[in-house]
Amino acid sequence: xxxxxxxxxxxxxxxxxxxxxxxxxxxxxxxxxxxxxxxxxxxxxxxxxxxxxxxxxxxxxxxxxxxxxxxxxxxxxxxxxxxxxxxxxxxxxxxxxxxxxxxxxxxxxxxxxxxxxxxxxxxxxxxxxxxxxxxxxxxxxxxxxxxxxxxxxxxxxxxxxxxxxxxxxxxxxxxxxxxxxxxxxxxxxxxxxxxxxxxxxxxxxxxxxxxxxxxxxxxxxxxxxxxxxxxxxxxxxxxxxxxxxxxxxxxxxxxxxxxxxxxxxxxxxxxxxxxx
Length: 276
Ligand SMILES: [Zn+2]
Description:
CATH class: Alpha Beta
Family: Belongs to the N-acetylmuramoyl-L-alanine amidase 2 family.
Number of domains: 1
Order of helices and strands: EHEEHEEHEEHHEHHHH
Protein name: Peptidoglycan recognition family protein
Domain Peptidoglycan recognition protein family: 50-204
Radius of gyration: 17 Å
Distance between the termini: 39 Å
Organism: Marinactinospora rubrisoli
Bound molecules: zinc ion
Strand content: 5-15%
Number of strands: 8
Region (Disordered): 246-276
CATH superfamily: Peptidoglycan recognition protein-like
Helix content: 25-40%
CATH architecture: 3-Layer(aba) Sandwich
Structural class: alpha/beta
Low-confidence stretches: 1-48
């Protein structure tokens, strides 16, 4: 992540007071209005800012049942890898096909109602909506019940990052887009990046998101915090809420030698989720 901005000074972003609902003011199918809030768009710079492509744009098939929307926003952002090939096709068309193939797999093989994750980022840095209703819910500060982290779907928003990062590293384009996406979500939901950003393995026994990407999460938290620091003046105007320490996930053992199968990144639905 050497191309990223310098980390914030020690402690600068810890216990950051953050804001709930800010993004709602922006509207549009952008990164929740990140452009309006001053977040840079290093990858997708342009008149449309940093776009999140919606389901219609990537050609989603109809869902079986409309996703359940919860009033309370998520407490954590879960970083996944797709356990697919580390493609060198960075085009938007490839990214759209990735979203379609994940949805196909989740609906056919897993028999889920729709694609499981909320957001998908390709190795080219293309950010896409996942489960139906995700973008409208984020804009309202609500939460679509997904299928990506077993027993924790009611309070976590899941980002699928294209690739397998057990030994390889993500592309700079993907990492930049992940920083922007996490910053957007932190603003939308009033989350502190140093506490809110976790890996799938923090909740479930899985190798996801791979040792390499998982090892980058501290830097990701720092980079997102630095991005948010640019907004400090605006954020300070809008109230504050921290995540309770009790909401911090536990850390189960990570299995070694887990098989890598496309779209099988570990437990996506658990018993607790089914009781919702
Ligand atoms: Zn995962």
